[in-house]
Amino acid sequence: MNMFNRSAAFVFGASLFLGSAAAQAGGTVEVLHWWTSGGEAKAVGELKKTFEAQGGKWIDSPIAGGGGDAAMTALRARVMAGDPPTAVQLKGPGIQEWAKEGALNDVDDVAKKENWDAVLPPALAGIMKYDGKYVAAPVNIHRVDWFWANPQVLAKVGASMPTTWEEFNATADKLKAAGITPLAHGGQPWQDATVFEVVVLGVGGPDFFQKALVELDEKALTSDTMVKSFDQLRKLRGYVDPSFSGRDWNLATAMVMNGEAGFQIMGDWAKGEFLAAGKRPGTDFLCAPAPGNGYILNSDSFTFFKVSGADRLEGQKVLASEIMSPAFQETFNLAKGSIPARIDVPMDKFDSCAVKSHDDLAAAIAANSLVPSMAHEMAIPRTIRGEFLDAVTNFFNSDMSSADAVKALVEGVKRAQR
Ligand code: GAL
After folding, report:
1. Tens digits of residue pLDDT in 335-371
2. What does the alpha-carbon distance between residue 134 and residue 341 come to, in Å, rounded to a whole number?
3. Which of 128, 162, 243, 272 could join 167 in a cystine, given CB atoms 3.0 to 4.6 angstroms apart?
4. If you take atom 11 of ligand 1, which residue's CA is the nearest one?
């Protein structure tokens, strides 16, 4: 069953204000993560600070590479070698996959004591648990379907934030004619897939997204709507600059900041970059949900691996407790660009993009239009996601037709399911 059962009745806005229990001092954690860009490093630095303030020892194991594909490869090697890190940035079905392999410790005693069930959206809590016990703790909720733009650049062609793909294309054409790169993009498979899923939401809407990218329904995957989605992706290919290949996502964000490009299509970790560079929403950069009337959800969490020894076990408990403390959830998310995973953290210190994300999330839950991210490993197993990334990247980097891309995608998905 898809863990993001969209009819799950989770209640947002409940004000419970349960403080986390006082954490005991001590413990050691080695934390494997992929947060190395400006905004990401600042955010993970907050976690380190919080943990160290409890007397703990933090060993940092960053594996560079946006989207975490390199980190996941490193993780497998560490587990195979019998030397897993204490805590790993890991999410979605990946948590369940590792739990099934018997590779995780649970932190359920901390979760029970602090009543995590009462302060997390049930759909998110479900992902953090295996066999009814918490094996991971969520730090945030990221939204994937965003347009980011430079208002000064848009003003050069008299444009405002687009609300449909037609408007986006029209503005992009004007920017191109004015000699400005319309779309800042980094040609890496996970970034191609991020743009692709945002397009699928916009072209097909949330129900179609759910059928095609989450349930892998063959009729949806082979539909005209999927062909049209690839058509729009082909249009976007025409809006990127010639040096897009292999570019890191944060460098693409910098292109928007510097006025070299009009837009970036990226999750709100891009906002973390703008903020880390001292830019302000509304004046230096603009955010707007991409078309589609949905909300593509991506939530980061730390998963606790099977380590032993009192010091490391203590470290896992302290880290779990600190991650879930309301004060940390506020500080961390103010830096990361996301919103808290806890439902009871006040939003008054957050900017207008975060408030929009928070409000739209509640609306999407009510309207049944919340969908989990395929590109960011919230929806489908890694093997199937890999087939999506291959098909989308091959399409983006060739002159393959949309119909052939659909064929390649469906064959890939079937192969991975065998
Ligand atoms: C996502 C992750 C975000 C952000 C992004 C780029 O998968 O959830 O927190 O770090 O990758 O690295």
Report:
1. 999 999 999 999 999 999 999 999 999 999 999 999 9
2. 15
3. 162
4. 67
pLDDT digits (tens, 9 = 90+) for 293-329: 999 999 999 999 999 999 999 999 999 999 999 999 9
pLDDT digits (tens, 9 = 90+) for 248-269: 999 999 999 999 999 999 999 9
In ligand 1, the atom with minimum distance to the C-alpha of 66 is 12
Q: Is the pTM of this model over 0.90?
A: yes
Q: Which residues form the pocket of ligand 1, taking CB atoms under 6 Å from any ligand atom?
A: 34-35, 40, 66-68, 142, 249, 269, 298, 300, 376
Compute, in angstroms, the gap from residue 109 CA to the centroid of ligand 1. 29
- 37 CA: nearest ligand 1 atom: 12
pLDDT digits (tens, 9 = 90+) for 90-132: 999 999 999 999 999 999 999 999 999 999 998 899 999 999 9
Strand pairing class (286-289; 370-372) = unpaired
Q: Residue 116, exposed/middle/buried by CB under 10 A (0-12, 13-18, 19+)?
A: buried
pLDDT in tens, 58-81: 999 999 999 999 999 999 999 999
**49-70: string of b/e by CB count within 10 Å (b at 16+)?**
ebbeebebebeebbbebbbbbe
Q: Report the sign of the C-alpha dihedral through residues 10, 13, 15, 17, in that order.
A: positive
**Distance (Å) from CA 186 to ligand 1 centroid:** 14
Nearest by Cα to 358 from 78, 143, 60: 143
Bridge pairing between strands 286-289 and 146-149: antiparallel
* Predicted confidence band of residue 25 (pLDDT cuts 50, 70, 90): low
Residue 264: helix, strand or coil by DSSP? Answer: strand
Domains and CATH numbers, the chain: 3-141+299-336 (3.40.190.10), 143-297+366-417 (3.40.190.10)
More confident residue, 45 or 24: 45
Q: Which 8-state DSSP code applies to residue 210?
A: I
CA of 300 to the centre of ligand 1 (A): 8
User: How many angstroms does the Cα of residue 76 sit away from the middle of ligand 1?
Assistant: 19
The strand order across the sheet containing 295-298 reads 142-143, 295-298, 370-372
Spacing, Cα 266 to ligand 1 middle (Å): 10
- Written as one string, the DSSP assignment of 162-183 is -SSHHHHHHHHHHHHHTT-EEE
The pLDDT assigned to 123 comes to 87
Residue located nearest, by CA, to atom 7 of ligand 1: 67
- The one-letter amino acid code at 401 reads S
